[in-house]
């Protein structure tokens, strides 16, 4: 009798599972696991909130402690989705392939494998996994189904199988609601490309034009850009060159308004190459000037005669002596400044390095102890603490270098127009590992991306210092909020607000009162460190304003204001 009841219950559960879509099934099982697994629940909640950076970090942590296959399948899936959102397709592929065959999320696994291989331009593999997904006997989510048909069609286009591409675009089109303008535009453009690649211009061009007109009244900039480019190509191919140029101009306008984080490294490398070329050009000009000066000097020497020769030599030696005296005076002044800078920097290094060196030594002893005891959690904590101290020490040494260069006028400083947002995102990207090691959540809020005129590298130094301070004084896990926008005074600003220990009112007043800072005016006993002094110096050099707002025990908010260029 007992066995029969069990069979009935199992059969009833299987009917419920069969009636759910793959996405609903994932959600319901995840919520069940959440009741007993806090770390898993944290990662899944970040996934639901679309905070993919935090989801990526916490799902990785949960995977280290999970022994349940069902939990591991879900964690690998949500970390894989987070990696896709960060354009880390090879990492995403590793996560999704780790999901077991015949798992309850097999349908989601196959559809994401198809998506990843499409982005990796492995079109045969993409189609292979999408066809496996299509053949699975389960209830599929309509949004995933629509996207899958779209991606299969794209893969067939790349493989020049236009009949199959059209078949799947038609399937996609049949699932699109009339209110879904974005999907309608994409589907029409895809069908138009199928026709156009087969030279069926009479069928393709009306669809291209219809997509373009719909995109003009729609908010999606990428759709505006792509539809304008399609029309530019169409007009060029049918020799409507004037119309083609107009469409290309429109395409470029929309393209300029898009900033892609994945291109930041490429743009940075180009900027470095331009900077090196400019330096080479300056060196060549200086060499030419030196050659010219030598020629002039030789002409004066050989062209003079008699008394003029004597007077010329007398004047030459007099000027040389004057120049030598002036040089000696200048060298003396420079040596005095360099000596003061040296003494100050030695003071900073001797004072600020002692504590982290002792901490690192202590962490190594702790690490050795945890290794002997095979304490994996203790090893991980000691390692994270050592990473934090090492990052802080490296930051101190960088500040010493930058301050020394700035005081001796050796720091390259060149103000140009830059969009503000990519500079901030580049610095944030460099801090992913440090933020993960310190269990810190980071949130961004960009209301407007403005053009600013600034020296980009010195601005990055300031942002790194401020982020280091936020992490350093977080007092355990916490949250950092980055906000960017435009204030009432026509300044572009970025603010960094943390939930750390805050600053006392007395010290805050001293920090905000920093003006023209020099070695003579620095007094470390007043509690103002080299990092903040360097920040104030570099922001002022960029003609900006750096202000601090804090309350003891409630965190700190730092704001950088820079003059906007004309957008």
UniProtKB/TrEMBL annotation:
<feature type="transmembrane region" description="Helical">
    <location>
        <begin position="299"/>
        <end position="318"/>
    </location>
</feature>
<dbReference type="InterPro" id="IPR005467">
    <property type="entry name" value="His_kinase_dom"/>
</dbReference>
<protein>
    <recommendedName>
        <fullName>histidine kinase</fullName>
        <ecNumber>2.7.13.3</ecNumber>
    </recommendedName>
</protein>
<feature type="domain" description="Histidine kinase">
    <location>
        <begin position="348"/>
        <end position="566"/>
    </location>
</feature>
<dbReference type="InterPro" id="IPR011990">
    <property type="entry name" value="TPR-like_helical_dom_sf"/>
</dbReference>
<feature type="repeat" description="TPR">
    <location>
        <begin position="146"/>
        <end position="179"/>
    </location>
</feature>
<keyword id="KW-0812">Transmembrane</keyword>
<keyword id="KW-0802">TPR repeat</keyword>
<keyword id="KW-0808">Transferase</keyword>
<keyword id="KW-0418">Kinase</keyword>
<dbReference type="InterPro" id="IPR003594">
    <property type="entry name" value="HATPase_dom"/>
</dbReference>
<dbReference type="InterPro" id="IPR003661">
    <property type="entry name" value="HisK_dim/P_dom"/>
</dbReference>
<dbReference type="InterPro" id="IPR036097">
    <property type="entry name" value="HisK_dim/P_sf"/>
</dbReference>
<dbReference type="InterPro" id="IPR036890">
    <property type="entry name" value="HATPase_C_sf"/>
</dbReference>
<keyword id="KW-0472">Membrane</keyword>
<dbReference type="InterPro" id="IPR004358">
    <property type="entry name" value="Sig_transdc_His_kin-like_C"/>
</dbReference>
<dbReference type="InterPro" id="IPR019734">
    <property type="entry name" value="TPR_rpt"/>
</dbReference>
<keyword id="KW-0597">Phosphoprotein</keyword>
<keyword id="KW-1133">Transmembrane helix</keyword>
<dbReference type="Pfam" id="PF02518">
    <property type="entry name" value="HATPase_c"/>
</dbReference>
<dbReference type="Pfam" id="PF13181">
    <property type="entry name" value="TPR_8"/>
</dbReference>
